[in-house]
Write a structure and sequence with these properties.
Elements: H1 8-25, E1 35-40, E2 49-54, E3 57-62, H2 65-69, H3 71-86, E4 91-96, H4 98-103, E5 120-124, E6 127-131, H5 145-151, E7 159-163, H6 169-176, E8 181-186, H7 189-201, E9 208-212, H8 215-220, E10 226-231, H9 243-259, E11 261-271, H10 274-277, H11 282-294, E12 296-304, E13 323-331
Parallel strand pairs: 3-4, 7-8, 7-10, 8-9, 10-11
Antiparallel strand pairs: 1-2, 2-3, 5-6, 11-13, 12-13
Helix pairs in contact: 1-3, 5-6, 9-11
């Protein structure tokens, strides 16, 4: 159920305002970053409502009937609270989770690309991104911001391979911090074209190139090694029952990725599957098996989760869905 009170919408307005104030405490938005998670569903007490901010645009993902039924009121509350943060009225874009809402008995049309919308741009760490608000998630992976910022300075002078690159976030961050070459790979041609435009926007197209390819096929045909490899696949375990099959997929792709890392180089490998992250030790155990398959030895340098704006509620551990492990790779 959604938030409850004598006046439910009064409670919703209060929770939205509290969420805005939490981001203000995190200095979001800032002079360098206008792309961030404004409302993180259960983490902000608003189950079924996720809102990502991209400058003056708010993209709202709805997966609960209460939120779908209260669009008008939620819009008004978001406009009021967010306008006070950025000093202008935001444009709100709705992306309902149609299949989830239909399972709750709602008769709802599929979300469609609104061709009349102007291109949405936002910044992260002084990089400018075109955001495809009808693409993956809400158009951008704000959850990886802290991991991009940590890894990018380690890429100075290095050759970088960004697997499942989407709009180019890791590659562009590395290039901005002085990487000598960045290659991004994604199976979606739409994503690769978006990443290429983002490289051009930031005058990094001389360093970054992007290739539309199945990642496994790319790695199987790859004979080069890179100083830094990022492997950030899509959610492979939507639920706990999918975990055994997902572990095999993660293990296979990570073994291939490890072989693309030069001896002594770094691999940042990620899982956005809550079932994997909340299954204690599962991700590092999988990585250990992948290292055996690739005949590599690993040292874990850092493990991390989503950026701080993806706030968590202690009663909802599934909200900690992201694992990002940075490892050094050497041959056995």
């Amino acid at each position: 159920p959604g938030p409850m009170a004598d006046d439910p919408m009064q409670a919703v307005r209060a929770l939205i305002e509290a969420a805005v104030q939490r981001r203000r405490a995190l200095d979001l938005p800032s002079e360098t970053t206008s792309a961030f998670r404004l409302i993180n569903s259960e983490g902000d007490g608003l189950s079924g409502l996720t809102v990502d901010a991209y400058g003056a645009h708010l993209v709202c993902s709805i997966s609960a009937a209460w939120a779908e039924a209260r669009r008008v009121e939620i819009t008004a509350a978001l406009e009021e609270s967010y306008a006070a943060l950025i000093d202008e009225k935001p444009q709100i874009i709705w992306r309902p989770a149609v299949s989830r809402l239909k399972s709750e008995g709602l008769d709802i049309d599929e979300a469609t690309d609104d061709a009349d919308n102007d291109a949405v741009e936002a910044t992260e760490s002084n990089l400018i991104y075109e955001v495809d608000v009808w693409g993956q998630k809400t158009g951008f992976y704000c959850d990886q911001r802290d991991n991009r910022n940590f890894l990018a300075p380690l890429c100075t002078g290095k050759r970088v391979l960004d697997l499942y690159c989407y709009s180019g976030g890791f590659a562009l961050s590395a290039a901005k911090h002085g990487a000598s070459q960045c290659v991004g790979v994604d199976s979606s041609r739409r994503a690769v074209e978006l990443a290429q435009r983002n490289a051009e926007r930031n005058a990094l197209d001389g360093i970054c190139r992007f290739e539309a390819s199945d990642v496994s096929a790319f790695l199987n045909n790859n004979s080069e090694q890179y100083d830094v490899v990022i492997c950030d696949p899509p959610k492979l375990a939507p639920s706990i029952r999918d975990l055994p099959r997902a572990k095999r997929k993660y293990q296979k792709i990570n073994a291939l990725a490890l072989n693309a890392v030069r001896p002594g180089g770094l691999l940042l490998t990620c899982s956005c599957s809550s079932a994997m992250t909340t299954s204690e030790g599962a991700f590092l155990a999988m990585l250990r098996e992948a290292a055996k398959d690739a005949n590599k030895r690993l040292t874990v340098l850092r493990t991390a989760g989503a950026a701080a704006d993806h706030v968590l509620h202690p009663a909802f551990p599934e909200g900690a869905y992201l694992t990002a492990a940075l490892v050094q790779v050497v041959d056995r």
